Amino acid sequence: MKIIIINGPNLNLLGRREPNVYGNLTFEAYFKILQNKYPHIELEYYQSNIEGDLIDKIQDTGFSYDGIILNAAAYTHTSVGIGDAIKAIQRPVIEVHISNVYAREKFRHQSFIAPNAYGIITGFGMQSYELALLSFLQQS
Ligand code: DQA
């Protein structure tokens, strides 16, 4: 099973960015934990702060990988282009957020990903990614 985790803008700063909201762990450290825990899954990780690069990666993987775990970060709430990319591809996308976006500012309640996502996991800290992975595992 081949799964990619795609992280959007500012998530390269995890561990340093607003630790009260996002915790103290870097994504690289968390990704190693996931890889060690699920060695039988071909797990990839990609991060970009650039909307078009995220769309390119969704297009590149969305016809051949088994699934995409997508934290589009702030672009979740603004990007028609990322929403359209998800509509265009054939493989399931699970939208994840570290924080509970519905407990935060109103502008974070809007998602251009959600209407075309297989499901949404929000508010479980870094564990949101693992819950998405488990969902893909159960489907296989
Ligand atoms: C986030 C929530 C978004 O609203 C925010 O812009 C982020 C991170 C999360 O994982 O909680 O950058 O996607």
Radius of gyration from the alpha-carbon trace, in angstroms: 14 Å
> What is the CA–CA distance across the termini?
8 Å
Q: Tell me the CATH topology.
A: Rossmann fold
Nearest-integer average pLDDT:
97
CATH architecture: 3-Layer(aba) Sandwich
Order of helices and strands: EHHEHEHEEH
Which structural traits does this protein have?
5 strands; globular; five-stranded parallel beta sheet; 34% helix; Rossmann fold; binds 1,3,4-trihydroxy-5-OXO-cyclohexanecarboxylic acid; 140 residues; single chain; alpha/beta
Descriptive account of the structure:
This protein has 140 residues and is α/β, with parallel strands linked by helices. It has a single domain (2-139), classed as Rossmann fold, CATH 3.40.50. It contains five helices and five strands; from the N terminus they run βααβαβαββα. The chain has helices at 19-22, 27-37, 51-61, 80-88, 127-139, and strands at residues 2-7, 42-47, 67-71, 93-97, 119-122. The protein has a five-stranded parallel beta sheet with strand order 2-1-3-4-5, with helices on both faces. Helix 4 (80-88) links the parallel strand 3 and strand 4 (93-97). Helix 3 (51-61) packs parallel to helix 4 (80-88). It is globular and about 35 Å long. 1,3,4-trihydroxy-5-OXO-cyclohexanecarboxylic acid binds next to loops.
What is the element layout, followed by pairings?
Blueprint: E1 2-7, H1 19-22, H2 27-37, E2 42-47, H3 51-61, E3 67-71, H4 80-88, E4 93-97, E5 119-122, H5 127-139
Parallel strand pairs: 1-2, 1-3, 3-4, 4-5
Bound molecules: 1,3,4-trihydroxy-5-OXO-cyclohexanecarboxylic acid (DQA).
Residues 10, 71, 73-74, 76, 97-99, 101, 108 line the site of 1,3,4-trihydroxy-5-OXO-cyclohexanecarboxylic acid (DQA).
